[in-house]
Design goal:
Elements (H helix, E strand, L loop, with lengths): L2 H16 L1 H13 L3 H12 L6 H20 E3 L1 H8 L8 H9 L5 E4 L2 E5 L2 H8 L1 H6 L16 H13 L36
Antiparallel strand pairs: 1-3, 2-3
Helix pairs in contact: 1-2, 1-3, 2-3, 2-4, 3-4, 5-7
């Protein structure tokens, strides 16, 4: 690690100790900029404080989990992405891939200096590009759910956003009940099951 970079991480850790709230803002900014290692250093320093307020601790833990989930979703490098696309377009040329990439057809993030693509970029390509769909073998067939096609609520959101120049519009209050069933004897007595259950 370059000496200047190591010094920066030390200084950021000191910020986390001196001002947890300011450090949290820096953590969020670092993650947004793809500086995950830098963010992790500040999170570790913040969580190491025994006097940290519960709400702030939860916020640090959320940002740590946010990074973990991003890294689960963004795992493909360019070679892996090309290989996945070539399963449907065997004659894909490198310059063709570069053109589609430049058009923003492959979602990606720069994380700690590595360009990583979204795991579903290969399949999403065929949703975004008629040209790619025409080349796919076998032909692409979408089995979309009811909320994946434009409906009255989508139109309401779009119209309200345009009219009000806002991003968060037409809110809905929903109540969701979910349950988790675990096989008998799957979890030792006294242990806690932790699971991420997305909303439907």
């Amino acid at each position: 690690m370059p000496r200047c970079h190591a010094l920066l991480l030390v200084l950021l850790a000191q910020v986390a100790i001196a001002s947890p709230s300011a450090s949290l803002d820096l953590v969020i900014a670092s993650i947004d900029q793809g500086q995950f290692k830098q963010a992790q250093t500040m999170i570790d320093a913040g969580l190491a404080q025994t006097s940290l307020a519960a709400e702030t601790r939860t916020s640090f833990e959320f940002q740590r989990e946010r990074m973990r989930r991003i890294l689960i979703d963004f795992t493909l490098d360019a070679d892996a992405l090309k290989a996945a696309v070539r399963k449907r377009i065997p004659d894909l040329a490198d310059d063709e891939f570069a053109r589609w990439d430049a058009l923003g057809l492959f979602e990606h993030q720069l994380i700690d200096g590595r360009l990583l693509y979204f795991n579903r970029s290969p399949s999403n390509l065929f949703r975004l590009s008629a040209e790619a769909r025409a080349r796919a073998k076998p032909a692409v067939v979408f089995n979309d759910g009811p909320m994946e096609r434009a409906n009255a609520h989508h139109r309401e959101v779009r119209d309200a956003a345009v009219a009000g120049h806002a991003r968060s519009v037409a809110p809905r209050h929903l109540e969701v009940t979910q349950s988790l069933t675990v096989n008998a004897d799957a979890v030792p007595a006294g242990e806690t099951v932790r699971a991420w259950i997305p909303y439907p």
